[in-house]
Design brief:
3 strands, GMP Synthetase, Chain A, domain 3
């Protein structure tokens, strides 16, 4: 007699609000012009400086960061991206870099 292993897969369907909350939980909180928002990091490539490099970017290092702005409910906020100043962008990028290094991704 052989033992047959049976596997059952259950598909869990989340409500719209539950799936939205699950998606939002991975975002960074920030503000643009004092308006609270959520930031999704699309890419964050950090290049460390190299003393043998022949150009300033490679010598000092740089970070290539792309992100998407959402409102507090998790909906895309293009209108808020348009209000972003250079200071807002720098603050958000610093927050992304800080989160990136605290998660151990600064290799």
């Amino acid at each position: 007699m052989s033992n047959l292993a049976t596997s059952f897969s259950t598909k869990r369907v989340l409500s719209k609000s539950a799936s939205l909350k699950a998606r939002i939980s991975g975002y960074l909180e920030a503000s643009i012009q004092g308006i609270p928002c959520l930031i999704e990091v699309d890419t964050c490539n950090v290049v460390k400086g190299n003393s043998r490099a022949d150009n300033p970017n490679d010598y000092y290092g740089y970070a290539d960061i792309e992100f998407t702005v959402y409102d507090r409910k998790g909906y895309r906020a293009v209108w808020l991206e348009k209000k972003m100043t250079d200071e807002d962008r720098e603050a958000i990028e610093e927050k992304i870099l800080k989160a990136n290094t605290s998660n151990g991704f600064d290799d």
